[in-house]
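>> Question from a student workshop board

For tomorrow's exercise we were told to take the sequence and the ligand below, predict the bound structure, and bring the output to class. My setup keeps failing. Could a helper post the expected result so I can at least see what it should look like? The ligand is iron/sulfur cluster.
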Amino acid sequence: MTRPEKIRCDACPVMCYIAEGKVGACDRYANEGGKIIRCDPLTILDRRMAKGDEIKPFLAADWDGQTATGDDVVVSAIGAGTTYPDYKPAPFIVSREIAGIDCVTVVTEAIFSYCGVKVKIDTDRHLGDEASLVRANGEVIGHVMTSEYGSQMFSLGGVDHLTGGSKAEGRATCDALLRLCNKQAVELSIDGGSTVIVQAGQPPIVDGATEIRMRVGCGSATIGMFASQWQGLVDEVVVVDDHITGVVSEHQAGKVIDWPATGIRILGRRSTPGRYFKVAGPGQGWGGTDIDDPLTILGPWRSEKGARSGLRLLMVSTTGEHAAYYVLNDALEPQEQSMPDHLQPSVDLIAQNCEAALCTVLFMGGAGGSLRSGVTENPIKLTESVKAAHTTVTIGGAPVYRWPGGGITVMVDVMDVPDGAFGYVPTPALVAPLEFTVERTEYRQFGGHDAQIRDLDDVLETGGEFGADACVIGAAE
Ligand code: SF4
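>> Workshop helper replied:
Here is what the output should look like for this input. Compare the format with yours to find the bug.
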């Protein structure tokens, strides 16, 4: 008996030979009955349904000819497939009317070698020094960027990690990016720092502990917010912070309400009155410092500047997670006492004002390369049209931020993209659904593949080169 021949998928440079009933290396294409098909259905976004509504199969056989018409129904690139090489017209070029204007949406599952994710992790805890390497499965896939206001930023992926290192590095990078973009959890370890589990829309898990709160502000900001509420309840407040520690009696927020001096001395670099840098090293302790005992940031109290026996001191962190109350003894040494009932609500108020700590993942990719040829025979015209905001770019139907300057470099919050929209090819590179929408007259003018334009009804009735099934999901405005 002769075995059926393998057939070749030509949707990406890997050019897999696929046996009957099997899938290719990316799991996106299969050989079904001697024909290459796209395994996932083409996804139609319907804004008349609520975002996240259940996926509804939309098969040509059940189609009543009415359901998917109108401004609110969009063919996304999810499940559309990829054409390769790029000069072939994109898999679907669909005409649709938007606010009475004849428009065209060009959809393709774009293969991105130039892509990565920017990750924002809401935590006070120090995850690692700026520029430290970030690893997944032991391979370097990115680095720590800046600390932002209550968050730490990572840059992961990018062409250098996908293509410029070892095969293992490229694979680990692609795998981590894919999972992050598809809203799955990925464990990342930072050289010289922590291990953090990152998942879009979920709290970070730092060294096994789930982060609950995002800081209310820096130490100085916390003083600025709550100084008047502490007045009369306590004689001094120090908000301990790895970046800017605040001291109410010296801070302008205290001065304007005539807060008396206390003779406190902070061991750190004084920036401006009541604001101190570098009171300790970065770490997992109070306010993102490496201290567990806040008294270590205090020097001897000065009686000539107002220190006295019985002076009451509150020390608190920027999330309210850590707080302690002290009273100076006769030797002007702080003695810890239980938190008075009248002071606890002010600590609770800090905690109440903290937002939930989350991970945010933004996919970032360069769509200004050869894939433009699937849209137009004159690629620079597409770039110019995008820059002029005549052509709208979306990823899986989600609006993108386009970076100013050259090229079509875009970013999108993966939480706005339907689940499972991202794929990969083992070159390695990420596959992301990409749609360009433009008025039909301009599409013609900039050399678009006019002969390949089809209407939505035809797409639903006859599908595309790689299959006919579609599904409909609810989409945000
Ligand atoms: S990796 Fe996927 S897209 Fe590329 S040739 Fe193989 S099956 Fe086709």
